[in-house]
């Protein structure tokens, strides 16, 4: 890879790190919804094969999400907004779901992962923008068995689309009547746990394709991507959390929805026109 392309790669990733950190703190989403499309465009520009590009984006995104979500979680926890009992119940099932999804992602084509990304992120965006706060599954959280099942789904979804599960978790908690700031804070907490086994899985799955991946790739995890994005996203995540706690409920909800819809639209267009 020429030095000019490496410089372009690094600059794009640095900018993505700033945006990732801000949105991770504001929305409790871990930043994967930002990183995956940013990485997709960058890796396309430097010539990564279409068949490997989405996997590389997801693996790298999951790696950056870990420290970003940790910083976001700390900022929210300092305000007492996290539901610790929910995090404890979700932890192990979410890891199991992540391992399942990683195994699936290793054998499917990139367009399948892209389609799943569009469907999931688009649904989350529509739900938030519509603002149907009267839609509730219940007014209290379910028992531990149901929470464990939800945790598994969070891990599975996160592994297939390269997000931390935070966006899914936020919307699920809202359906059970959890206030949005507490939902965002708790989602940030699960976002620092879910990606760990996913990163390991994507690194192993991509090892046979090293010859076709950019320099300094550990399987489907780009070290350049991690080094450029993680530090800035960690710095800006607490700033995003402070912004979130200053926003009214509805404005925060609309912001989350528009963010997801924009990302889903971009990937839908790439599915249609390539």
Describe the structure.
The chain has 274 residues and is an all-alpha fold. The protein has one domain (3-273). The protein has eleven helices and two strands; from the N terminus they run αααααααααββαα. The protein has helices spanning 3-27, 32-45, 50-77, 84-105, 110-130, 144-161, 166-175, 180-191, 195-206, 223-246, 249-273; strands at residues 217-218, 221-222. Strands 1-2 form a two-stranded antiparallel sheet. It is globular. The protein starts with a helix and ends with a helix.
Give a brief description.
By secondary structure, the protein is an all-alpha fold. It is 77% helix and 1% strand. It has a two-stranded antiparallel sheet.
Strand fraction? under 5%
Count of DSSP strands: 2
Mean of residue pLDDT? Answer: 79
Question: Number of helical runs?
Answer: 11
Radius of gyration in whole Å, from Cα?
A: 17 Å
Count of all domains = 1
Largest sheet: 2 strands, antiparallel
Keywords: Cell membrane, Membrane, Transmembrane, Transmembrane helix
Transmembrane segments: 7-40, 94-124, 149-176, 183-205, 217-240, 252-273
InterPro entries: TM_pro_TauE-like (IPR002781)
Membrane topology: Multi-pass membrane protein
Write out key terms for the chains shown.
274 residues; mainly alpha; globular
Detail the topology: elements first, then pairings.
Layout: H1 3-27, H2 32-45, H3 50-77, H4 84-105, H5 110-130, H6 144-161, H7 166-175, H8 180-191, H9 195-206, E1 217-218, E2 221-222, H10 223-246, H11 249-273
Antiparallel strand pairs: 1-2
């Amino acid at each position: 890879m020429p030095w000019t392309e490496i410089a372009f790669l690094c600059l794009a990733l640095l900018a993505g790190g700033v945006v990732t950190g801000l949105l991770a703190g504001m929305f409790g989403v871990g930043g994967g919804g930002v990183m995956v499309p940013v990485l997709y465009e960058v890796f396309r520009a430097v010539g990564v094969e279409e068949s490997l590009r989405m996997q590389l984006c997801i693996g790298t995104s999951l790696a950056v999400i870990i420290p970003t979500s940790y910083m976001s979680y700390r900022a929210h926890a300092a305000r007492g907004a996290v539901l610790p009992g929910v995090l404890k119940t979700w932890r192990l099932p979410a890891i199991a779901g992540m391992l399942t999804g990683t195994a699936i992602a290793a054998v499917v084509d990139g367009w399948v992962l892209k389609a799943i990304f569009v469907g999931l992120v688009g649904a989350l965006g529509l739900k938030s923008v519509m603002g149907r706060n009267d839609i509730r599954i219940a007014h209290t959280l379910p028992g531990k068995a149901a929470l464990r099942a939800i945790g598994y789904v969070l891990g599975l979804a996160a592994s297939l689309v390269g997000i931390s599960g935070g966006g899914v978790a936020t919307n699920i908690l809202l359906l059970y009547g959890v206030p949005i700031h507490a939902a965002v804070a708790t989602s940030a907490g699960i976002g620092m746990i879910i990606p760990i086994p996913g990163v390991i899985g994507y690194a192993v799955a991509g090892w046979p394709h090293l010859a076709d991946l950019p320099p300094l790739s550990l399987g489907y995890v780009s070290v350049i991507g991690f080094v450029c994005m993680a530090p800035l996203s960690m710095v800006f995540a607490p700033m995003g959390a402070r912004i979130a706690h200053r926003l009214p409920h509805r404005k925060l909800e609309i912001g989350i929805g528009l963010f997801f819809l924009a990302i889903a639209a971009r990937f839908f267009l790439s599915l249609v026109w390539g």
